[in-house]
Inverse folding.
């Protein structure tokens, strides 16, 4: 059905206007490997080299023929795509492969990981938030049960005249009052304080510039204030920590520390003691921070984060939604840093570029089996996406992990090229960062540029988008900035990236760098 310019627009009106204003408002009609195609005014197909590749969800490229053939054959076999609440052994097959990979890449974890499936990355993150809360609640119940038992023991001891209530900061213990009365007052006061703490939601820890999704809980773990702040009242809050400042990390944990009050009878005296309360729900970490210029975590930071989680007993959740599935040259980017997670999240490429799928993994010795029924989603672990996930995993693992080696080699070739552009344009390229096929190039700050166009675009946080629009228009290459604002462009193509693709990208970047160096900003505009 054709639409006229005067037709009302019900979807993407604002978004499409904005995309057009920066030169990105193109409708693609076909996709293959690292190429997107659109039809120009004379209906000719125009090829565009795609470095965005589904925000990094196409490790094997657009419409990979092995994956699409597999999907077609699975559909031809009339497999049950939906058979909710029946035995779905494909879920266990995927989990078994994932366990073997995790065991290989992060040796030393004996218990294995239980899998819960989801439909999107943010959903997998929310599943982790829920499971971490279940763990925290179990710890709270254990603590409050212990306290209740100790209260009964104190009542018995005071009732039998074996103990008295001694000086404490919570109730007066002056003469003339019955010890039983004093104890009941103390129990009431402790109960009031404890109830207030127990009712509180957890605080989560995450890293500065984190991106963990945009649903109700996950958006609170995503630092970008434009996306997070309007919704803070809906969910638990997050303390964002700098990965390279361990002292700050420890101080924040100390500041968040809370204690429940308990009663102990010791040598005839009823004393009040403090018991550490699990105030922190979980620590979420991306091994390579996508929205922070593709910055990998250092091994030192990884160790610090692991130590913080071990000290407070909260789960360390390694979000591999962007960095996992082979993109960095290993299945788990965190394996490069020797980081072991208590939970993991995976999504993006597990869908093979044609379906939606995601999974959260939980260390078996922390996993609460009741969660398998407590949490569900109609579409999660459907037969089609499960079958495709198995195919993708088989392709990643084939030939002794050839895909990982290719990702590492192509990524380092790409990064090497970006590095050479940087060394030739030190005045306009600030940093090149990333791991494997997850890299970014950051331009120097242009907010004080002599060229008014550059100054204005950089000031509005739009330089990266204007550069992306220019590269698309002039070079037929699709890149996007890192994050919603910023003056950087990211590259996360599939493993099919060729030397010719890299060479084309280099000449496009050199062109842009020349424009920036010459302060010729108007040339970037449509
Ligand atoms: O599948 P879903 O998008 O819900 O996954 C959420 C998610 C992502 C992720 O990378 C991590 C580590 N955890 C959870 C998905 N990433 C999406 C993403 N989107 C943008 C920028 C990024 O760096 C990553 C983005 N940028 C600009 C506009 C809109 C989106």
């Amino acid at each position: 059905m054709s639409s006229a310019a005067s037709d009302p627009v019900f979807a993407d009106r604002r978004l499409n206007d904005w995309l057009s204003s920066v030169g990105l408002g193109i409708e693609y009609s076909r996709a293959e490997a690292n190429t997107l195609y659109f039809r120009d005014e004379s209906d000719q197909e125009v090829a565009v080299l795609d470095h965005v590749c589904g925000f990094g969800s196409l490790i094997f490229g657009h419409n990979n023929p092995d994956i699409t053939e597999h999907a077609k054959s699975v559909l031809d076999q009339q497999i049950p795509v939906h058979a909710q609440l029946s035995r779905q052994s494909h879920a266990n097959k995927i989990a078994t492969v994932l366990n073997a990979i995790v065991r290989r890449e992060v040796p030393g974890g004996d218990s294995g990981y239980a899998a819960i499936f989801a439909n999107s990355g943010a959903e997998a993150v929310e599943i982790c938030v829920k499971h971490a809360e279940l763990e925290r609640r179990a710890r709270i119940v254990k603590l409050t049960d212990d306290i209740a038992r100790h209260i009964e023991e104190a009542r018995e001891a005071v009732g039998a005249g074996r103990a008295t209530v001694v000086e404490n900061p919570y109730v007066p213990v002056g003469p003339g009052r019955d010890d039983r009365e004093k104890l009941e007052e103390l129990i009431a006061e402790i109960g009031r304080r404890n109830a207030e703490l127990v009712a509180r939601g957890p605080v989560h820890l995450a890293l500065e510039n984190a991106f963990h999704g945009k649903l109700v809980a996950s958006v609170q773990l995503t630092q970008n204030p434009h996306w997070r702040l309007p919704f803070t009242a809906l969910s638990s809050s997050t303390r964002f920590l700098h990965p390279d400042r361990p002292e700050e990390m420890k101080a924040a944990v100390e500041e968040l520390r809370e204690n429940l009050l308990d009663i102990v009878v010791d040598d005839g005296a009823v004393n009040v003691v403090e018991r550490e309360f699990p105030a922190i729900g979980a620590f979420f970490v991306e091994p390579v921070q996508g929205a922070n210029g593709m910055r990998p975590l250092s091994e030192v930071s990884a160790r610090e984060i692991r130590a913080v989680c071990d000290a407070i007993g909260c789960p360390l959740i390694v979000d591999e939604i962007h960095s996992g599935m082979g993109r960095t040259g290993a299945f788990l980017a965190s394996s490069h840093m020797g980081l072991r997670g208590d939970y993991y999240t995976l999504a993006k490429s597990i869908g093979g570029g044609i379906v939606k799928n995601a999974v959260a993994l939980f260390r078996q010795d922390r996993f609460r089996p009741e969660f398998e029924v407590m949490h569900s989603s109609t579409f999660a672990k459907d037969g089609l996406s499960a079958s495709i996930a198995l195919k993708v995993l088989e392709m990643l693992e084939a030939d002794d992990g050839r895909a990982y080696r290719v990702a590492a080699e192509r990524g380092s070739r790409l990064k090497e090229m970006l590095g050479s552009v940087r060394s030739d344009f030190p005045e306009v390229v600030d940093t090149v960062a990333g791991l494997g096929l997850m890299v970014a190039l950051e331009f120097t700050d242009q907010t004080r540029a002599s060229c008014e166009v550059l100054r204005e675009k950089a000031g509005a946080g739009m330089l990266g988008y204007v550069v992306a629009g220019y590269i698309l228009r002039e070079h037929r290459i699709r890149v996007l900035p890192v994050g919603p604002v910023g003056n950087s462009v990211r590259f996360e193509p599939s493993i099919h990236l060729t030397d010719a693709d890299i060479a084309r990208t280099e000449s496009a970047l050199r062109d842009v760098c020349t424009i920036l160096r010459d302060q010729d900003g108007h040339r970037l505009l449509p």
